[in-house]
Structures are given as structure tokens and as C-alpha cells.
Design a protein that fits this description.
This protein is an alpha+beta fold. The chain has helices at 85-95, 138-147; strands spanning 5-6, 16-20, 36-41, 43-49, 57-64, 108-112, 114-118, 123-128, 133-136. Strands 1, 2, 4, 5, 6 and 9 form a 6-stranded mixed β-sheet that branches. Strand 4 (43-49) and strand 5 (57-64) form a beta hairpin. The termini are close together. 29% of the residues are buried.
Amino acid sequence: MSRKSIKATANSSNVIALSRAVPQTGAQTKTPAGPAVVLFQMDGVETFKDPVHEGCRTVFGWVNVEDLPTEIPSANLRPAQIDKALHKKIIKTLTTEDGQFHEKNSGITIVADRIERNRDSGEVRAFISAGYGVINGGHTHAIISKYRDQMEP
């Protein structure tokens, strides 16, 4: 199976951005069992402090599409529909070796309550409560989750 990654640079498409939630006044909504914990194996990780919200940060990194967790909660009210012509083009770039996958999707952005990073292993844990999760890139996530097993070797 070929190795494809989601590029994670601040100015490009294909970003996986893990953003700690902006501190809010009042109580946060939590799921009864607590936040979902999503584990990412990331390479080339960079962390940036939010210039406005003290204590908040954004984590960028590369995630191999074969390792992208499928169980990331979604904060998007609209379910991802991946049956349009544009999505079929993205699917083709994921499943074939045309070298354009990173150019034909807009990446994934996730908002989490808390992010823990192990600098030695590249492991990143995102703690995601109800109302948080994928806020951008739901179509990309759905396409990778459904079609990555069809990638050409």
C-alpha cells in the first residue's frame, strides 16, 4: 500500500490542525462519559500559541492517511456527503498514484478541549467533548475513512 500523508503546514491545503478550544465563560457541554480521546501519530509536528486566547494553541503535523483515526467526532451539523463529482475526483487521487491527493482536498481541522503531545514518539492525543471535533474537512475525513483500503500498492 502506498504511503500518503495529509500535509500539515499552516498555509497549505491538507492541514490537520488540532486547535484547543477557545476558553468560554459558563459551563462547557460534556458527554456523560467525558470527552472522546483520539490518538494521532504525527510527524513534523509544530505547535503555535494563539495570539488572542491565552492558553490556547494549534498543533500542525503530518498524519499518514493509513493511520488517520476514523472515530473522530464531528462538530459539523451537516453529515459529509461524498457522492458528488468533486468528491469522486478526490477519491480517485486517494486511491491512485496520480500525486495530486494533497492538492485536491482541503484538509482536516479539529477543535479539542485539550491536546497532549509526546515530543519523543510523535503521539498526539486530542480530548474532544460534545460540540467539538472536526469543524472543517469532514468530506476529506469521510473519504479517507471509507476509501483508504482501496489505495493502490
